[in-house]
Amino acid sequence: MTQNTSVNRFDTRCNTRFFGPPASASGRREKLTLNSLKLTFVFVALLAGFAVASDQTQTSGSPDRADLVSAVRTLEKKLGFRRTKNFDKESAESAVAYRCYYTGKLELPDSYSGLQLVAGTKDGCTVNTQKYDVFFYPMDANASGKTPLSATLAHESTERFLVVVPHEDFHANKELRKLPETWGEASATLIGFLTATEVARQQFGEKSEVYQNLLREPELFVRKAEIVNRYYAQLSQLYAAAHAGKVSEHDALEQKQQTFEQLHQACTAITPAPKSFNRCPAANNNAGLAFDETYTKYYPLMYQIYLAKDRKLRPTLDALENALNTKSETDAAQNLKRAVASDR
Questions:
Q1: Could you tell me the residue range of the domain that residue 18 belongs to?
Q2: Which residue has the higher pLDDT, 177 or 285?
Q3: Exposed end of the chain (fewer CB within 10 Å): N or C?
Q4: Is 164 within 8 Å of 276 (Cβ atoms)?
């Protein structure tokens, strides 16, 4: 096979400070072998983006990670979280898994479950970036229920660490498994922020930098969500027009490039910079955008619950769990809207 190291510039803007999907997400696609894909051998060398994404790193004065996990678990128990074994053990590995998500140049699934997926390695992905939009994801955590504490997550900022632990633990909520990933990820993201903020208040005090930083995260993420959702809708319409023959493939690809440039400009304008997540999609292409949409699609609606409950953790958690206790997406959305309206 011919090695081709040229990578579309949208494929190289990769930041991987993410909250990992459950270990079983898109499991049927992980069973595919690389040989069966018959793709050109291309190393997607995006580890630089991974390093840049971890700019808020642990210092010698950072709190012990085991103590922070213990503090989070104490609060989770009071809140009624299901007990997990996530982060109970440490790992010397920098990632718990290496995933290669990809999709067509004019295809935009509505969540990471719609993306094609094969295993990657620490060196990247063997997926043809001339044919597909690729997102290489070195996962620093996931919601397996027994995911170890990776070396990468152990050296992340205190803010990032405090958010990731309850985010992954919240996925153990059985009610969330009745609904698509877009509901589970949005709710786990919000509850992760709020749980982390309360732990920071208890551990460091309300005047601490960690607490003040985490107070801003829910609002910063809703700004990101609104941007991601807006450009996701715009690109979905463009691709639908292309598939219907209303826009040529050439014109669609040109408009796509312009739209992703606008998206990148919009998300990088979010200030101040978040401490626990990336301002922009993990990869500035269809794969990265579809992945982010999983987390952002319903987050603005859930954020309204948070505001309606006076920005309080327990009332927000109770309202979300009640609203999501259904098997229907339509019912879940209606439940959330009614919950918001009832508190106005």
A1: 9-342
A2: 285
A3: C
A4: yes
Domain count, the chain: 1
- Is residue 92 included in any domain, yes or no? yes
Tokens standing for 132?
């597909």
3-state secondary structure (DSSP) of residue 316: helix
In a domain, 87, yes or no: yes
Which pLDDT tens digit goes with each residue over 256-267?
999 999 999 999
**DSSP H helical segments within the chain, as ranges?**
27-30, 34-37, 47-53, 65-79, 151-154, 158-170, 181-204, 209-243, 249-268, 286-296, 299-308, 313-323, 329-342
Query: Would the CA dihedral through 84, 87, 88, 93 be positive or negative?
Result: positive
Task: Show the tokens assigned to 4.
Answer: 């081709």
For 95-98, the CB contacts below 8 A with 24+ separation are 95/122, 95/138, 95/139, 95/140, 95/150, 95/152, 96/20, 96/139, 96/140, 96/141, 96/142, 96/144, 96/147, 96/148, 96/150, 97/23, 97/138, 97/139, 97/142, 98/122, 98/136, 98/137, 98/138, 98/139
Assess if residue 1 is contained within a domain: no
Q: Is residue 65, in this structure, part of any structural domain at all?
A: yes
Give me the pLDDT at residue 190, please. Answer: 98
